[in-house]
Design a protein that fits this description.
The complex is a heterodimer of chains A (about 270) and B (about 325).
Chain A: H1 11-34, H2 53-59, H3 62-95, H4 101-113, H5 116-130, H6 136-161, H7 164-172, H8 177-206, H9 209-214, H10 221-230, H11 235-260
Helix pairs in contact in A: 1-11, 2-11, 3-6, 3-8, 3-10, 4-6, 6-8, 7-8, 8-11
Chain B: H1 2-7, H2 20-31, H3 33-62, E1 66-67, E2 74-75, H4 81-86, H5 89-122, H6 126-141, H7 144-155, H8 160-167, H9 171-178, H10 192-216, H11 220-228, H12 233-262, H13 265-269, H14 277-285, H15 291-314
Antiparallel strand pairs in B: 1-2
The chains are: A mainly alpha (about 270), B mainly alpha (about 325).
């Protein structure tokens, strides 16, 4: 990097960058205000009055609780599957050279590199060809498939930074493979796995496109919201749910950031 | 080997040595690393291979089936008829509209992303750098539907944008724009302009991050040298910064382009009744029950992205990812 002090940016650049960031953030904050509006039917701005009654109304809606519970269960199981598959894959790819290594990295990335609708309809047509009925597990199948990549990315970056000589030292001191994994490898990659798991959870919790194809009649929270956007029943409840969803996804992401910030993830992961 | 194993007591180790099956397995893996590798790769490759690639293959297969127009049943015989249907004027129109939108969204994202990425890469330090990074990551990861919903609130006829323009006495500008063909409509939330804005908003972070990564690798003294040699800021941008940032922009465009090609929720919630590829796929497989045509439609973004990725790789965009 440069050795001299930081020169200050031209004013135009500062303004453009600030406007860009505002553009990214203001719409999300708007949701928070709408969650308190007294207006029931339309999107009127500014809100004619402020109230907290919609939080109570939302609290007493069983459909919201059902959707939330399904979303959390799906995200938890998908994250677990993704953690196992992603870590195994990352360990194999980062430690050794073998034939087809590039193909495997591509295989992991493909489910999110191709548009979600392709993953969704592909799974759906496969379910119908194999005559698998829609269930909790068909949703998990889809979610786990594209969650693998975030765990894999986090784990691979950490494996690359973990020095191989530590593993050799452990072996030299007489530990077997399992002991080395338990006492040397795992503590080293634990925070990366936790971060990957958090992101996988957030990704699954928010996923809507693949879910519409694999869910059948069941509603995850995003599917519930999509229904409300297309055929609104009670707008203020949607506002409150939207705000809660923002807050719920915010926490794992912030946590994932703090777990990985000392190194590879910062600054666009430039090498 | 056997001699060493039976004769010598194990050297005093920090950790007690496990015997039995565990020890045997551990030794086996140590002696045959290929076996361990195979065992590690088997679960993820089986999962992704069967669940994902298998499904993609099933989908591709279905695009070569056709639907019987009278009975509505799927005829499981190899035919290219469905691809013939895809080339009808109405369907080509959908493809053209989607590709145009994807290109415009990509262009706009690149323009808006550049100053943010450049500031973060060259001027932001320490805390500010972290703040910028979070400032891009949080919107990237926040709920996709909530973001669309927020824009529904903003773009609606009685929403905040109309209110703001009324306060600024600029409503005539909005009305004039909405009365235009193609881009206009009853309100911004049911116009192609609205669709465009929301696409740009939702995919923008995917453009910022790779551009920032590319710009971070540009040494600062290159920019200083350019201005020392008498180049104006504009010339420095055109001849130094832009060419060096281009792989990053191409890398970002992979996301913005691909995501726009496949999305069907944004144009459904904010936009006109004119369909995009994703919506066509959704309605063909759902209400129309024509899975072969839906499958053939999905082949379009796959083929376009195939060429796109091939071109991007040649431009070195993958190094900027």
């Amino acid at each position: 990097m440069r050795s001299d002090g930081s020169p200050s940016a031209p004013l135009g650049l500062k303004i453009a960058a600030a406007c860009g960031l505002l553009f990214l953030h203001l719409p999300i904050f708007l949701i928070f205000i709408y969650a308190f509006t007294t207006e029931e039917k339309s999107f009127v701005w500014p809100p004619p009055g402020l109230t907290t009654q919609w939080f109570a109304v939302t609290w007493n809606r069983p459909d919201v609780w059902q959707a939330l519970s399904l979303s959390i269960r799906v995200a938890a199981i998908s994250t677990l599957v993704a953690l196992v598959l992603g870590t195994l894959c990352a360990a194999a790819v980062s430690r050794t050279q073998f034939f087809g290594r590039e193909t495997i990295s591509l295989l992991v990335i493909l489910p999110i590199a191709l548009p979600g609708i392709i993953t969704g309809i592909a799974l759906r047509s496969a379910f119908s060809l194999a005559e698998i009925p829609f269930s909790f597990w068909t949703i998990v199948l889809g979610h786990a498939t594209f969650c693998v990549v975030v765990v894999y990315n986090n784990a691979v970056a950490r494996f690359r930074r973990t020095s191989g000589s530590m593993i050799e030292a452990s072996m030299d001191l007489g530990a077997d493979g399992f002991q080395t994994f338990r006492h040397v490898v795992l503590p080293n990659i634990a925070t990366a796995l936790l971060a990957g798991g958090m992101l996988a959870f957030a990704l699954s919790f928010d996923e809507v496109i693949v879910t519409t194809f694999t869910a059948g009649q069941q509603q995850t929270l995003p599917i519930w919201m999509l229904e409300e956007l297309i055929r609104p029943r009670q707008r203020p409840v949607t506002n409150v749910v939207a705000m809660v969803v923002v807050l719920v996804t915010l926490l794992p992401i912030l946590l994932a950031y703090y777990l990985t910030r000392d190194g590879d993830q910062i600054a666009g992961s430039g090498k | 080997m056997t001699l060493a194993a039976t004769q010598a007591k194990p050297a005093p180790a920090l950790l007690p040595r496990a015997g039995g099956l565990r020890g045997a397995l551990s030794d086996l893996f140590w002696r045959r690393p290929k076996l361990l590798l195979l065992l590690m790769l088997l679960p993820p490759v089986l999962w992704l291979g069967i669940v994902y690639i298998g499904s993609l293959f099933a989908l591709l297969l279905q695009s070569f089936f056709s639907i019987d127009e009278f009975s509505g049943l799927i005829n499981r015989e190899f035919t290219l008829k469905t691809y013939g249907d895809l080339l009808q004027a109405a369907n080509l129109d959908i493809i053209l509209r989607t590709v145009t939108m994807a290109a415009l969204v990509t262009l706009a994202s690149a323009i808006i992303a550049f100053p943010i990425a450049y500031y973060a890469a060259r001027y932001a330090r320490g805390r500010w750098k972290a703040l910028f990074y979070l400032g891009v990551m949080l919107p990237l990861w926040s709920s996709y539907l909530v973001k669309i919903y927020a824009w529904k609130l903003i773009l609606a006829k009685e929403g905040i944008l109309t209110w703001l323009l009324a306060k600024l006495h600029l409503l005539w500008l909005l009305d004039g724009w909405l009365s235009l063909p193609i881009v206009g409509g009853n309100s911004l939330s049911v116009s192609s302009t609205g669709t465009f804005i929301v696409f740009v908003y939702v995919w923008l972070p995917f453009m910022i991050l790779p551009v920032q990564a590319a710009l971070e690798r540009v040494p600062g003294n290159l920019v200083e040298a350019s201005s020392d040699l008498g180049a104006s800021p504009g010339q420095t941008f055109r001849n130094v910064l832009f060419p060096l940032a281009l792989p990053g922009i191409v890398a970002g465009s992979i996301f913005t382009f691909s995501l726009t090609l496949g999305d069907y929720i944004i144009p459904q919630i904010i936009g006109t009744s004119r369909l995009f590829i994703g919506q066509a796929v959704y309605s063909q497989q759902g209400t129309a029950g024509n899975i072969p045509l839906a499958a053939a439609f999905t082949v379009v973004p796959i083929v376009i992205m195939g060429f796109y990725l091939w071109g991007a790789k040649r431009m070195g965009a993958f190094d900027a990812l």
